[in-house]
Design brief:
Elements (H helix, E strand, L loop, with lengths): L13 E10 L4 E10 L13 H11 L7 H7 L9 H11 L23 E7 L6 E7 L7 E8 L4 E8 L7 E5 L4 E7 L8 E10 L9 E10 L2 E2 L7 E2 L13 E2 L11 E7 L3 E9 L4 E10 L2 E7 L12 E11 L2 E12 L2
Antiparallel strand pairs: 1-2, 3-4, 4-9, 5-8, 5-10, 6-9, 7-8, 10-11, 10-12, 13-14, 14-17, 15-16, 15-18, 18-19
Helix pairs in contact: 1-3
């Protein structure tokens, strides 16, 4: 009887074949065993740690996929007992070399408290009559690198229209999923949220015949900041919409969603004051493809949808496109910004 102990050296991820031989004066026995070593953070199992692994964690958090037990273990890089969007953040930090190892790899547990009071949940009138927006806003900078949110609603009262990410999450990796009666969003970044702004905007209509102004429409089932769930601290969200949405305080151009996309995508932008706004689409040669918006816009939140066609209403080819916003007052340019989008057919 004997015991073989083996500890994998650094970089030993993969399959390892062990051949065990035992013999005495009468006979000999040979047996083999394969030991598989998983690399911490390699959720996909392809042998490398990449942003794709972070994306898999976020998709699991919103219920778009279900990770198996091995994936849950190698994805738990923070060293606690669960997997969360914070693990996705740590993987993203590792990919861009902000960290060179994971807390779990050192036998430690990451501890990063957040500030739930830094977030607000408001129902405001939508941009179209009869529509409302549930806006999730970070009201001040917080220590959040990972966020997971799951909001429940009664499908007999609420009809969902669209869910778009806010400008605040442009630099984060985001996953969204909307099974019936739920709004699920998970986001992770390489650095904590550093400024106020919108996290997400959910547009919906209500059954006017059955909904009272003070009726709870939405219930927070999960609101995980870093690795702590604050859902129990958040009251039900009602239809008290007040006089209208508060105007944003800064100009911003949001990342289109979905991206990549086919056949259409939505671009959001915000104007803190009335402005003459143009949103123009270009190809990578700098040629103008389509003017998506042109005209006066009041202070507020706006969106425009592109259907993958040019100004002649002809379908364009797959590829990377640029969209630019310019806001003016008189002859003065108040704001301009450009972002990329990918059309895939």
């Amino acid at each position: 009887f004997g015991v073989l102990k083996w500890g994998p050296p650094p970089g030993a991820a993969g399959d390892h074949l062990f051949v065990v031989q035992a013999s005495d004066s009468l006979s000999s026995v040979t047996d083999t065993a394969v030991v598989r070593v998983y690399r911490l953070g390699d959720v996909s199992g392809n042998g490398a740690v990449s942003s794709f692994d972070a994306g898999l964690i976020l998709r699991d958090q919103v219920g778009a996929i279900v990770l198996d037990q091995v994936q849950l273990r190698v994805g738990n890089v923070s060293g606690d007992s669960t997997i969360s969007s914070t693990d996705a953040s740590l993987i993203l930090q590792y990919v861009v070399s902000l960290i060179d190892t994971f807390p779990a790899g050192l036998g430690k547990r990451m501890r990063q408290d957040a500030v739930p009071a830094a977030f607000a949940f408001t129902v405001v009138p939508g941009r179209t009559a009869g529509e409302y927006d549930l806006v999730v806003t970070a009201t001040r900078p917080s220590n959040v690198v990972g966020l997971t949110m799951s909001v429940a609603y009664d499908t007999a009262l609420v009809t969902p229209l669209r869910l778009v990410r806010g400008a605040l999450t442009d630099s984060m990796t985001v996953a969204m999923h909307q099974p019936p009666g739920r709004i699920n969003l998970a986001a992770a970044g390489t650095s904590p949220l550093s400024q106020p702004g919108d996290v997400a905007r959910f547009t919906f209509t209500v059954n006017e015949r059955t909904v009272r102004d003070d009726q709870v429409l939405f219930t927070m089932k999960r609101f995980v900041l870093n690795e702590r769930d604050y859902a129990d601290d958040i009251a039900g969200i009602t239809l008290n919409v007040g006089g209208g949405p508060a105007a944003p305080t800064v100009f911003a151009l949001g990342q289109n969603y979905p991206n990549p996309f086919n056949p259409s995508t939505t671009i959001t932008y915000q104007t803190p004051r009335p402005s003459a706004v143009t949103v123009t689409l270009f190809n990578l040669l700098g040629q103008e493809v389509r003017t998506l918006a042109a005209g006066e816009r009041p202070a507020g939140y706006h969106s425009v949808t592109w259907d993958g066609r040019d100004d002649r209403n002809a379908p364009v080819s797959s590829g990377v496109y640029l969209y630019t916003i310019t806001a003016r007052s008189g002859g003065t340019v108040l704001f301009t910004a450009t972002k990329k989008m990918l059309l895939v057919k």
